[in-house]
Each structure stands twice: as C-alpha cells, then as structure tokens.
Amino acid sequence: MTDQEIRKALADHQSKVLESVQKINIAESQIENLQRVITYSELTADDLKSLPADVNVYESVGRMFYLQPVEEIQRMLVDKKTNAATKIETLQANKVRLEKGMKDSGEHFRELLEQKKSQM
C-alpha cells in the first residue's frame, strides 16, 4: 500500500466524519425542535381541558384565526404530538446509523494503517 493510497483513505475518512458530524448535529437540533413541539402541544392540551366541551376556540393558521370546536383542536394536538414522536424515532435511528458509519470508517482506516505497518 502506497502513501498515496493512505492519504486518499485518510481524506475519505475525514470527509465522511465531517459529513456525519454535520448530519448528526442537524438531527439533534431537529429532535430538540420536535421535543419542543410535543411540549407545547401538551401544555396547550392541558389548558384546553379546563374549557367546557361545547366551547369554540380560535386556531392560529398563519396570519388568520379559525374558530374551531375544542375537540377538533385537541385531536389536532394529539396528531401533532404523534407525528413529532414518529419523526423523533426516525431521526434517532438515522443518528445511530450515522454514528455507526463513522465508527466503521475509523476502524477501516485503522486497519489500513495496520496493514501498512505490517508491510514495512
């Protein structure tokens, strides 16, 4: 194995690690945002529980407000929480996959170095 091949392997490893770290950071920030969405949905749902069932409340949609029954808003909040939880699970699985790929890349590079040392 030549020095040129080792340099190429090192460059590949570094680029893979850099890309993985960036994707992991993005996934972590998305997970935090989704956890915030879940928290806000839970707090809003708790506030809505104190209202009578026959009351209509306003739902914010962009710059407008729609008058909706409380049950409809509560269903929407449950759906929002469920969707956020599903996305969090997916992001965590992707994060684990990226970390494993980073580890595998490092092990592969170490194996190449060991091969080079044994050839000397």
Automatic annotation (TrEMBL):
Family annotation (Pfam families): Prefoldin_2
InterPro entries per the UniProt record, alphabetical: PFD_beta-like (IPR002777), Prefoldin (IPR009053)
An example Gene Ontology molecular-function term: protein folding chaperone
Entry keywords, A to Z: Chaperone
SUPFAM superfamilies listed in its UniProt record: Prefoldin (SSF46579)
Signal peptide: none
GO cellular component, one term: prefoldin complex
UniProt similarity note: Belongs to the prefoldin subunit beta family.
Subunit annotation: Heterohexamer of two PFD-alpha type and four PFD-beta type subunits.
UniProt name for this protein: Prefoldin subunit 1
